[in-house]
Amino acid sequence: MKNKYTLGMIGLGTMGRNLLLNMADNGFQVTGYDKDARMLQKLEEDGKAHNLKGFESLTDFVQSLELPRRIMLLVPAGAIVDSVIQEVVPLLDKGDMIIDSGNSHYTDTSRRAIELSDKGIHFFGMGISGGEEGARFGPSMMPGGDKTAYNAVKPILEAVSAKVNGDPCVTYIGPGASGHFVKMVHNGIEYSMMQILAEAYDLLKNVLGYNNGQIFSTFEKWNNGRLKSFLLEVTRDIFKVKDPKTGGYLIDVIKDQAKSKGTGKWTSQVSMDLQLPIPTINESVSARDLSKFKTLRVALSKALPHQQTKVEDTAAFEVQLEQALYFAMITSYAQGLHLLEQASAEFKYELNLKEISQIWRGGCIIRAVLLEDIYQAYKKQPELPHLYSDESIQNQLKEIIPGTRNVVITALSNGIAIPCFASALTYYDSLRTENSPLNLTQAQRDFFGAHTFERIDEEGIFHANWNENN
Ligand SMILES: NC(=O)C1=CN([C@@H]2O[C@H](COP(=O)(O)OP(=O)(O)OC[C@H]3O[C@@H](n4cnc5c(N)ncnc54)[C@H](OP(=O)(O)O)[C@@H]3O)[C@@H](O)[C@H]2O)C=CC1
Ligand SMILES: O=C(CO)[C@H](O)[C@H](O)COP(=O)(O)O
């Protein structure tokens, strides 16, 4: 058989099929393989205009590809990726490449890259974001690892990616598993942004007493300003969808228990390992987990009720809530980028935060106009210690903090849980505190465990006999 396809996709579900259609739209000769025959049929139906066809046999699929072969995986993350690699590698030649574009854990990607390089196969991990529509019409992509393999697919990735001001939303992220690491942190930020929007919804509904129509209008108004983002657009649109079964709003019949696939949790786990705090992202992971305790929540809501007070000036509170959302949004990105900087040093990923914020401006789930400011901040100062260190961000913080404080106070006094808003504000206050009370923590550690402490007036390590002075 004549080798003719430039790239082959394994896994023709939501992401794989749509990305393949996107590649075909851009003039690339591509094909696919899925163990599910219905997926092959769907690819053929959707790709009729390009005569797009897949293979039922993995061997025929592999043999149909140009040498060196470019094979992309978009199968569920975890053990399935290993089993697909095991199946396909015996059919490959040295120099062929495998690109794993699913949400794989970065440690799995590191291991696979080493195992496959021993076999002469180029492997790299690539995070992809944008969901179904992004894959179809322009995602943001975060490839990292083997640069030879990246260069061999670079023209395809640049062609199919989203574009902002003509720049493709894809760039080489760095060595090792850096691509999957950056995608994982992208998802941590995604969890945080989703949770702050949920908290804003709670306050609009339960403090201001807005109905779904008013909530839609408020989100629409906000999305016409500095909060403009994909997640706010999606959130706004949810409030106009009716349920065909009840005739009411669909949002009102959805259970208040959120699920997750793990990328947010992984972000929190690695932040603990690297001792680089991302409390707002952590709270968003916990909020999903706490939501599962429905029976307990129902019982406790009856046993421990809380009196709510009325907000007198509705319009002023709405303005402050917009400020709180913007502040929590800045903080979500700030924490994610701070974690990336620490991980880059620890894992030698050579991450470029300017380029990462540049490719997040379009195509991905966390795209927002705010990312343009963030990109400009890192462009001006590539070694920026923290997003809060940028002067233009500082000017914005000064404007929105008073309103944010009032939103947090109002929510707390009304007994409304706002884990992300509150933790973002406390994080901000922790970082702008010159003299923290943690001298006491050091004294306590030395008191009960002789763990020693340092002094502010003298170099060295000290230990006090605390009981002697009692
Ligand atoms: N959906 C999204 O919005 C996003 C998803 N991702 C990530 O992309 C990856 C793919 O996700 P998505 O497209 O949504 O998943 P889907 O479940 O829609 O598609 C995966 C496809 O892979 C097939 N598959 C499973 N095992 C094999 C195998 N051994 N050989 C060949 N094909 C196989 C599945 O078949 P079958 O169903 O029969 O098992 C299915 O058709 C995941 O890692 C996901 O986390 C990343 C960004 C966004
Ligand atoms: O990767 C994505 C977008 O960038 C997925 O939408 C994300 O995996 C969804 O995660 P979860 O199911 O945990 O909410």
What does this structure look like?
A 7-stranded mixed sheet has the order 3-2-1-4-5-6-7, sandwiched between helices. Strands 8-9 form a two-stranded antiparallel sheet. The relative contact order is 0.09. Helix 2 links the parallel strand 2 and strand 3. Helix 8 packs across helix 11, helix 9 runs antiparallel to helix 10 and helix 11 packs across helix 12. It has 470 residues and is an alpha/beta fold. The chain is globular. The chain has 3 domains: 170 residues, 3-Layer(aba) Sandwich (Rossmann fold); 249 residues, N-(1-d-carboxylethyl)-l-norvaline Dehydrogenase, domain 2 (Orthogonal Bundle); 32 residues, 6-Phosphogluconate Dehydrogenase, domain 3 (Single alpha-helices involved in coiled-coils or other helix-helix interfaces), CATH 1.20.5. 54% of the residues lie in helices and 8% in strands. The site of ribulose-5-phosphate (5RP) has 10 residues, from helix 8 and helix 11.
Brief description of this entry?
The protein is of the alpha/beta class and 470 residues long. It has 19 helices and 9 strands.
Name a few traits of the molecule:
single chain, 470 residues, alpha/beta, Rossmann fold, N-(1-d-carboxylethyl)-l-norvaline Dehydrogenase, domain 2, Single alpha-helices involved in coiled-coils or other helix-helix interfaces, 3 domains, 19 helices, 9 strands, 54% helix, 8% strand, globular, binds NADPH dihydro-nicotinamide-adenine-dinucleotide phosphate, binds ribulose-5-phosphate
